[in-house]
Amino acid sequence: MKENVDNAVLRCVKEFRVLFPDRKITTNAIVDWCGGIGSGKVVQRILGRNYEKKGRGKASYYQACQMEEKMNGGQID
Known about the structure:
Elements: H1 5-19, H2 27-34, H3 40-50, E1 52-54, E2 61-63, H4 66-71
Antiparallel strand pairs: 1-2
Helix pairs in contact: 2-3
């Protein structure tokens, strides 16, 4: 079965959030977690389109938009 890169990265982010709820979602953390699904630039682009970016440069991280959190009742799907 084939899965497009966007869906694969988003699936990995959901897994990451479930297993490591206290860790920040960073580009490097997701690249490491995904095991080579996409380059850092690809992961950064996907995260930027689907999550809210906080901070700048190396200190930046991503978090779920408030609308997503409300829709899930604060739960990770």
